[in-house]
Every structure is written in structure tokens, then in C-alpha cells.
Records
---
Amino acid sequence: MQTQKSFDEFKNEPFTDFSKADEAEAMKAAIEQVRSELGRDYPIIINGEKIDLETKFESINPANKTELVGRFSDADSDESLTEKAIDAAAEAFKMWRSVSPEERAEYLFKVAAIIRERKHYYSAWMIFETGKTWGEADGDTAEAIDFCEFYGREMLRWAGRQPITKLEGEDNRFEYVPLGVGAIIPPWNFPLAIMAGMTLAAVVTGNTTVLKPSPDAPTIAYKFMEILDEIGLPKGVVNFVAGSGTKVGEMLVQSPKIRFVSFTGSKNVGLHIYETAAKTPKGQNWMKRVVAEMGGKDAIIVDSEADLESAAQGVVSAAFGFQGQKCSACSRLIVDEKVHADLMAKVVELTKQLKVGLPTEADTNMTAVINQKSFDNALNYIKIGRDEGGEILTGGSGDDANGFYIEPTIIDNVQPQATIEQEEIFAPVLAVIKARDFDHALEIANDTQYGLTGAVYSANEEKLEQARDEFHVGNLYLNRKCTGALVGAHPFGGFNMSGTDSKAGGREYLLQFMQGKLVSKKVAANKRDDSEAVGSAKDTTAKAF
Ligand code: NAD
């Protein structure tokens, strides 16, 4: 097992080149390995103890819905277990908070090394559990490695001596200390990268956690727990409680023993958590911190002066990659009416070339959406899009006989403010809106509750600069697609109803899991006399806090 030295400069993990025969063979072997492990039972884990419960819920393969991926002990069935998990984390915090940052970071480097070594194995779990194609699963695995390597290094940086103004006669030091017990509530769509990134950011900063995985992707989260066990992370630092958001999740957010909530998911759940966590129940001695990364209604603007070939490729990849189930996915294409016909011909042609099929097959471009609810929701939005005057250019229907397959769907002539132009669908449904000119395109793009990602294609530098100033999103991309953020290079997080702009994979991210502590020590050389009357002309501290 090769761990990268902590002082190496961070570099993004390269993606796998599956055109190489040996890599393709390795992935096929991993898929068969995982296939042979499907359908097992998984316990919850509290303070390292595996607890098997009678009541279970199932995680299935969305692309082949009769295939059982795993059966999970359901912590919804016994409320005392969530309480027990929080207590275990609180107990472990007493020890973990004083483990050195260097040692904590070393655990993350070890996690990275294990994932790197068995990357296809973890990718294969996501292929079965969440309908990721090979490339999408590989990207998720690479990002998980990146989060470990990046946050490990970041912790070392924050643990160093922090710059502070020198004052004669005092030894002043500013350091960051952990918060306490955190609830980690991830989504299913980056079930390894986001789940591991959220958990390990909290852990490396000295906190302990209760991880409630998404009920749609608990198996890959359990595999992550196995890694933590393998590297010897002390028991109780991460407790694993599988259950629903409305029971286990709700209990975690409400608990007075929880110091912070790290959430990634939909806008409505995020807002509910934000509000709930603001309450200060009896016995809670703090205001909970909430890190909430939420949805998007991300737009790509294609200007009249754009390279249409490259724009079309970017749009199709960002709209239909992982079936449009990325928070950064392009769900609105805003195109200058002068190039609308030419661009749409290219976009439609590329979309028709997409191969929809099983995610286990190497050449599949698109597969099923995550579950029945998502399938029904997508079809409902397609109907609304039609009813509100949209014109279907491709797709428009779905088939849930074997899995939850929605055709890649493009709806043209959508009006600004139409339902499908405003609400996140989280499926392969692209709304196309015509703009009179570039100003109008920006106006349409910004006219949303959200502000996560956006992209502009134009050969005109002035327009790109205008977008830099005026396009109000957390992640803006110029002449490239709006998906595919890389840790370190593209700190990720949105404005407005897209969340608290936490910038995952960025240099401020870890600060959200720590609080600053200033210790000021009077030293012998201190010339200032504490006996000076407070407020006197000589009392230099009188006008400060
Ligand atoms: P979701 O909101 O349905 O669920 C997210 C998590 O919250 C799950 O673990 C769920 O069980 C839990 N949950 C649900 N109700 C809860 C409650 N009342 N209290 C506590 N926890 C609760 O979202 P999802 O379907 O898992 O993920 C898709 C959404 O996530 C999309 O909206 C997408 O845009 C967003 N997302 C955002 C980012 C980002 O970085 N901004 C990244 C990935 C996904």
C-alpha cells in the first residue's frame, strides 16, 4: 500500500483510460467480483460494534431492479440506536479531539491509498448500486481519492502556526479546534466521493461523526466503513446508522448533542434542515452549524459567436452524463436565437448517438435514473414541459419494465419562468430557451432561485468578461461544460438556494468544521502595567474587546 507523502504537492488522481485492454479487463473482473458479492446483509455500526437488526431495507440496482445489491439493518426501527450512535461519537470525541492533526491526516492518506489500490472494485459497487457508467464511476472514485489527499494536506496547513499581528509583551497564538459531534447526511449521487469527503473533512479536523448514508446508496458507504476499520481508525469516530432521512436524519438534526450538520442534497430537505438546526433545544449549549450543499438549475449559454461544435458537445455531456443526475448538470440550454437552429441540429444529432443500456457494459453512455420516484418525477416534468408549450426534440418517454430508464429528452421552445425552466428535475431532461441577445441570455440564466454552476460558450472576450461579472453562480465555466469540477482546481459550491457555498474541495472548506481559538499569554518582557486604571489614557486595551 503506497501512501503519498504529506508534503507532496496535491495532484488530482488521473482517470482510468478504459481504451487500454488491461484496464478494461480489470474493470470487467471487478464487476464480476462485485456481482458475486451482491445481496448480502449489512449491519449498522456503533462504536465499532456491528449490530444486526431484524427490520431491513433493500438497496437495489436501478438499471435492473430485480437485482438486490444489499439488505440493510434499518435504524428507523429503533430510535434508541441513533441516540446510542450519537453518544458513542460524543465519547470518542474526548479522545479524538486531542489526536494530533498529523496523525489524523495520515488516516486520510491511508484511505486514499486503499481506494487507489482497489479503485475498480469500488467503482463497480457504484455501477450496480447507482447506475453509474464505467467512466462516471471511475470519476467518483478518483474524486474520493482527491478529497482524502486534499483534505489531509489542508489539515496540515491549518494546523500550522497561523499569521497573527505581533504585540510586544505577549505571546499570541491562534489555532483551530474541532467543534464536536457532527451529523453527516450525504446524497446518493456521488455515493463515494461526496459521502467520504463530507465524513473525512469532519474527521480530519478532529470531530467525531454519525454517518447516515442515503438509503439509495448504503452499500458503497458500508464499503467505506470497511476501509476505516482496515486502517484502524479508532472506534466511535465514524458511526454508521442506515435509515431514512425522515427518521434517523431528522433525529440527528434535532439532537442537542449534535454540534454541526453536514448535508448535501435537495433544496427542500436542505432548507428544512437549516430551519430545524437553528432551534436550540434544552441542554444544547451551542448554535448548530449547518453546511448545506443543495440543488441547481444550471444553465449553459451559447452565444451567437460560439464554436457550436464544442458547445454542442459540452451541452450533451453536461445534460446527459449520469442521466442528468448531477447537481451541476446542464438542465437549461440558453441559446442566442441567431444560432438556435444550427446548434440544435448538432445537439440532437449527438444526443441520438448516446447508447442507453446497462451500466455494466463498457460502451453504455446512459442508463437508468436512481429509483421509481425519480422516474415518475421525470415523466411528470416532461408532461408539464409539453403542457406549457414545449416541443419535444428527442426522447420524451421512459420504460420502467426492468430498470428506471428515461430517454435523453430535449424540450425546445421553453419560455423563461416555465416550470421546467425553474425547478430542478434531476433527470435527463434538458429545457432549451431562446434568447434575443447575450444580455437577454444572462438575464434568463440569473432569473432563478439557484446559483450553483453555469457555463458560457463564446469567442467574444468582452462577453466572457461580462459573464464573469454578471453570471451569478458559485462555479462559472467559460468555453467548457458546467460539470466535472476537480478537487483543488474548482472549489465547488453554490449561491442562493444552492446552499451555503461551502466550496467542497477548496481551501476554506475545512474551516467550517473548526472554530478559532486565540490564546494570549503575557510574557516577562511585558512593559504594559495591568494595574493601570481601566479606561485610562495608558490602558491600550480599553477600546478593544
Ligand atoms: P435528498 O435531499 O433527497 O437526500 C439527501 C440526504 O438527506 C439523504 O441522505 C436523505 O436520506 C437525507 N434526508 C432526507 N430527508 C431528511 C430530513 N428530513 N432530515 C435529515 N435528513 C434527511 O437528496 P438526494 O436525492 O439524495 O440527492 C440529490 C440532490 O442533491 C439534488 O437536489 C442535487 O442537486 C443535490 N446535490 C447537491 C450537491 C452540491 O454540491 N451542491 C452535490 C450532490 C447533490
---
Amino acid sequence: MFALEWLPPLPSVAGHILDGALLTILVSPILYLFLFRPLTAHIAALRQAQDLLRQQRDHLEEEVRHRTAELVERNREIVDREVHYRAVVEGASEGILTLDEQGLVVRNNMAAEKIFGFAPGKMAGMPLAQMLTPDSAKRCLGSDGLFYPVSGLSLEAQNKNGGIIPILLSVSAFRHENIRYHTAIIQDVSERVMFEKRLARLAYYDSLTGLPNRRLFHDRLGQAIERARRDGELVGILFLDLDHFKDINDTLGHLFGDLLLQETAKRLSNLLRKEDTVARLGGDEFTVILEGISDVADAEDVAKKILHSIGQPFKLGEHERYVTSSIGITLYPLDDSNIERLIMNADGAMYQAKLNGRNAYALYTPKILSKTMERVALEASFRKAVKAADFLLQYQPEFVLHYQPEVDRYSGEVVGAEALIRWQHPEFGLLGPIQFIPLAEATGLIVQLGEWVLRTACKQAVAWRKAGLPPFHVAVNISALQLKNHEIVAQVARILEETGMEGRYLELELTESMVLDKNEGLIAILRDFKEMGITISIDDFGTGHSSLANLQLLPVDKVKIDISFVRNVTRNEHDAAIVDGIIEMAHKLGLKVVAEGVETEEQQAYLLEHHCDILQGYHLSRPMAAGDFEALLVNLVETTPLKSSS
Ligand code: C2E
Ligand code: CA
Ligand code: CA
């Protein structure tokens, strides 16, 4: 617009038209130059600007559209993710809970409610710690009463009704808007625990009868022994075996055999108290553990009841069968205190009951050989041992005690040495006679073994005499089987001759039961021994319930009071009376009295006071190797003037 101000002033009207044309010609370029050209340029610029704006707008619109689409997409993703997480949390089988700073439940999933037995929405605000058993809470809470981070801790929770649930707990912490939260994940492992229990049942129970199996029996026996040791009580162990079970299996078939075993298990369980254990070891072998009994008689009563109960007819399907059983009994701690040996004892006693004619029980006695030692294997190695002479003798001294008034003490004089056999077994180590003498007797090898003992003991006695030791008896235990034939007399005579042993230093110990039936043969043998100058003593006296008067008819010199009476002589009036009676009567009959198994000062004092002649037992000396015995004697000779024995 500024260009209009530059126009020149107009001339007169006369020359108006001419001037007009001229003017037009003149002005036009000017107009063009000063008016149109800038105007069109301006318009073009405007257009351009307008285009630019439009482009920008389009671009912006595109941008907005794009952003909106993006937002929608992102939103959908968020919703998806939320749904996903929600589904994961809600669908989880683990209880998932968020706890606030006080350990209260802020949020939880359905599984948590299910585990704890709450209705939906009812867990909020509850303290999780109180849903654990006190013991478990202690294990996962810090001193501030808050959970510390754990992973898979095995605990016990308590549901709403007080039921105990085994769980695995994992806890982690996180912060949100400066507040500390915990996430707890709880896995209910009841089923797994139940499964494990089922597995354990399989491992510890017999599947046929549901009774404890051998393994559990072992565990229970160990526990029973522990309790009995603490409370000073007895434990009875019964081994039961059905007589001729194989016949039932063979004639009726295994199905009926199984029925019989199940019925037997039922009868045994019904018969016993809750605290007793009945177990099936396998086959037709059952065991019973009796706790809290005070007497052998208690165990015997149970055995009698069992025999009676098993003796009642069994209904096996359409069949009716009569079955009997054999029972072995052993008692902790009277017979042994070692589990393995107790089991062996009861088994051995059961075997004895079978030998006694079945449908019976037998108490363990040390004479019974344990089956567990594998009779057959033992027999084979025993035969070998007899050949290889894998045996040795130990000697246990017998003493006469002399009172020394000057020093107010007793001095011991060794008047005898009892030879006791041991087997140096390649696997089992040094075995005592209880473990193999019954086998030697059962196999007849005792005759050979007995001869070896006699010869070895005689050789040793002669060696001691030659070494200048004061004279004393060497006593040898003789088994019943050795006495069965008269051969023994010739055998002894031969050995005395061979070894140069004088008969008057040899003593033979026969048990009371061996001389109970005084047959002519036995009396003749004993007389022959006497003629050789040999001393005869009656071992284990008191156990065979024979009267001393019976001995009068036999050529015997000594009685050895059984260890079982000596053990209780200061504690039990009855046993003391028996000991007193034996000493008194024996002296009247002109017999010497030996007390075996003297273990305490009190027993020794009692026996001396009651004029027992000779004492033997751990209190004075244990059995020992020949070399040690010699050393003991040399020592005694040096410290006390010894009188020679008669
Ligand atoms: P036994 O003839 O009554 O022998 C005494 C047993 O009591 C021995 O056991 C001895 O070691 C043990 N004893 C000794 N003093 C004490 C004590 O103070 N306390 C306790 N608790 N025990 C004591 P061992 O040597 O085990 O002999 C056991 C049985 O084996 C003997 O009883 C005997 O009957 C038999 N025996 C041993 N050697 C032979 C043998 O050569 N031939 C035969 N046929 N039998 C033998
Ligand atoms: Ca003896
Ligand atoms: Ca004895």
C-alpha cells in the first residue's frame, strides 16, 4: 500500500483523455512495477505459507493419530499384563500373600484362603505369623516379629480350625512408595508328606498283615531297651513261629497260607496291650516286644496266652485248620543287653521250643545256640577249626583266702585254675564257649574238642610244675556227651600218661544236671576217675534242684555254687538261704564248697563269713591266658608265703 503515495498530481480536463491514454501507458508499468508485482509476490508468499501450514497440520494430525493408536495399544498391553498377572496369582496353587509393615495380610489369592480355610476376602488384615504353629513362627520371624526373607522353609501352619498343615514358606521383601512390604508364598505339602508317610509305611510295615516289619521291630526294640534302661524295667522279647506252616501252604496253597498269617497277626494284636509291639519278620515268623514287665513270669504268661490263642481253630475260607506255634523268650537285661544278641537269643529259644516238641515256649538259656550265627556255616567252620585247633584255653584262678591278723587283710592262695575254652574265629573274633559248645554237642564234635581241652590243660599244668610253680588243681569242664560212653576213662588215662600229668592235680567239673540220674554207668566212670586220683566237682550247683543228699551216693569232692545264687547273695534272702544251706550241707557231707562268679567285695565278705572254702570270680581274677596266669602266680609267691594245696 505504501506505493500509492508515490503517484504524481493529475493535469487539466482538456487534455484529459489524451493525457489519460498517455497516462495509462506511462503509469501502467509503474503500477505494475510498484503495485501488482509486489502484490502477486505477496499473494504467492501467502499461498506458500498457507501450504506450509496445511502440511504442518496434516503432519500434526498424523502424529496425533499415531500417538493415540500407540496409547491404545499400550493400554491394551497393560490391561493384558494385569489380567495375566491376576490370572497367574489367582490360578496359582500356592498361597500368595502381600503383607504390610506389620506383617498383616494386605492382599492374598484364593489358594491362600483355601489353604487356611477362610472364606473369600476374609484374610485381609490378619497377621500371617499367627497362622503358623508357635515353633514354626519362631523359625521364620526376626526379633522384630517380622518375617525375614527365606526360600522354601519347611514349616507347619495352622488352619482356621486348628488343623496342622505342613507347608513350604518363601518370603521376599519389596518397597513401594517408601513402604516396606513382604510377599509370602506358601506351598501346602500335605499331600507330599502323606505320600512320604505312605512310602515310610511300605518301608516299615509288612504289607500282608499291616504289622511292623523287621526294620521297625528293630527300631522299637532299641527304644524299648532305652526306656527300660532308664526306668530299671525288663523288656521281654518273644519269637513266634507257626508249627508246620509249610504244610498249610503246600496243601491249601499260598492264598490260604496268607489268610492264616493275617489271622495270626490279628490274634496276636488283639491279645497284647497297646504299648506292646507285634511284628512280622517274614514268612511265618512273628516277634513281640513286651515293655514294662517285672518278671520272667509275665513274659511266660503272654507266651501261654499266645499258644492258647493260636491253638484255636482257624477258619480259612471253607477250610478249618488247627495250627500250633513255638515261642522263644528272652529278657533284657537279664539275658543280654545287646539288641542283636537278644534277637539271637529269642530266636535260639524258639528253636529250642521246636526241639522240645513244638506247641511250647522256651526261655533263653545260655546253652541255646543262636540260629543267627548261621548254624550251618558255623558248623562248617567249626569242623575246620577243630582240625586246625583254632582254639585256646584261658585259666581262671580259684582262691582260698587266708586272714592275716597282723595287717587285718586276706591273702589269696591259688588252689586251682579252671580251664575255659575260647575259639579264635577268623571272622567273629574270640568267641566264648556259650556260642559254640552247644554246636559242638549237637554235632558230636565235643568229644574231639573235649579231648583237645584235656590234653592242652594237662600239658600246661605239667609245664607250670616244671617251671617251679606251687602245685594247684587244673580243672576241666566236661560235657554230658563226653560222659555218655566209658571211652572217656581210657581217654583220660591216656592223656595223663602222655603228658606226664599226675591225676591228683586234675579236676573234672560235671554239671549238676549231668549227675541227676545216677545210673550205674556214670557211677562206674566216676569211680574210675577217683581211682586215678582225679578230683570231681559238681558245677552250676543249685540249678538242677537236686538235693545234696543225692550227692552222697556219688564219689564227688566239691560243689560249685552256681553264679546265679552268688550274684544275689547279698541282695536276696532266698538266694542267701540257698547259699547258706549248700555250704552247711556240703560240709556235713565232707565236700568242699566253691563259689563261682564272685563279683563284689560284699559277696566275698558274705561268703567268707559263711565259711565258703574257695572263691572264684571277676572280683578276684578274670580268666586269663596261660602266660598271664603264670605271672600272677609268680607275683603271689613273691609277696605271700603260700601253703601248698592239698
Ligand atoms: P562255667 O563252667 O560255669 O564257667 C564259669 C563261667 O563264668 C565262665 O564263662 C567264666 O568266664 C565266667 N565267670 C567267671 N567269673 C565270673 C564273674 O565273676 N562274673 C561273671 N558274670 N562271669 C564269670 P565262660 O568262659 O564263658 O564259660 C561258659 C561256660 O562254658 C562254662 O560255664 C562251661 O559250662 C562252658 N565251658 C567252658 N569251657 C569249656 C570246655 O572246655 N568244655 C566244656 N564242655 N564246656 C566248657
Ligand atoms: Ca565250670
Ligand atoms: Ca557255672
